[in-house]
Amino acid sequence: MNRSTDRLSRRRFLRGGLQALGAATVSAGLRSARAAAPLAVRISATELVTREGGGITLLQGAGCNVVAMRGPEGSLLIDGGLAVNSEALLQAAVAATGNARVSTLINTHWHPSQTGSNEPVGREGGLIIAHHVTALYLGRAARSACYEGSYGPLPEIARPKKTTLDRGSLEFAGQRIDYVYLPAAHTDGDLYVHFPERNLLVAGGPVSAESWPIIDIRNGAWLGGLVQAHETLASLAKPDTRVVPANGRLLTGADIARRRDIYQQLFKQLDAYLNRGFGPSDVIAARPLKAYEAEFGDPARFLDGAYRSLFLAYAPD
Known about the structure:
Strand 4, helix 3 (about 85-95) and strand 5 form a beta-alpha-beta unit. This protein has helices spanning about 5, 10-15, 85-95, 110-115, 120-125, 130-135, 225-235, 255-275, 280-285, 295, 300-315, and strands at about 45-50, 55-60, 65-70, 75-80, 100-105, 125-130, 140-145, 145-150, 160-165, 165-170, 175-180, 190-195, 200-205, 240-245, 250. The chain starts with a helix and ends with a helix. It is built from eleven helices and 15 strands. The longest helix is centred in the C-terminal third of the chain and has 23 residues, at about 255-275. The protein has one domain (about 5-315): Ribonuclease Z/Hydroxyacylglutathione hydrolase-like (Metallo-beta-lactamase, Chain A, 4-Layer Sandwich), CATH 3.60.15.10. The strands form three sheets. A seven-stranded mixed sheet has the order 1-2-3-4-5-6-9. It is about 30% helix and about 20% strand. The chain has about 325 residues and is α/β, with parallel strands linked by helices.
């Protein structure tokens, strides 16, 4: 992937050039940011670390995977699900951790499925941590390739108060927790969260379990960033590292290495298609991910976004 490092400096094209794509990058089948509240929300809990060992639980069903950790003065949450599911999620966090409140919330990025609990946590005095770009997005209305309509701005109380441009760490319940930037991978404000003493990695938006990821090309992401994110995560994870993706089942470090290989090969193939003058529909028809369709589903939307992102990244200065 010789070109990817050079092209990361061109992320501004992924922000500024998307007006020309208009609605072409937004599928009518995508979840709306303003979706109505479900009649019932079922939150499942999977214990990752016992309470005796620190108490870390994976909560699923709120709109994204959420990790909850027991703390001395309140729990830590990584991501917060959709706002319509927040009450059920926070109740599940109380049951899982035994803490009556959330003292710290980390947003892995700014999309509605990650930031729906920001307001209730902020109103209860919880500290919200995120990348600096995530804080900026939550202060205005934003459109995305990942949902219909617009999202935000969130009220001031719901916006992150502690941000990073690159990396940070905190001590929580006697554990060191690192949060680190993944540039231009799923958005332009992605973080992963690492529990080094627990061999646990929360990968956030760039990593998907049973389906193809979405590259938010309206907001700074491109295929090269997705590849680099998986290269970074694969270098950090051991084969048996437990990896929490944005949605779906728990993965391992070996799964991340496999996805890295798939995306590296795809990058090379799409680069070749670009040099041959293919358009997005030609790429979809060529089916470069045919070998993986039974496992991950129809890649058409993923391929469309990935290929369009190359056009934007390779635009001349």
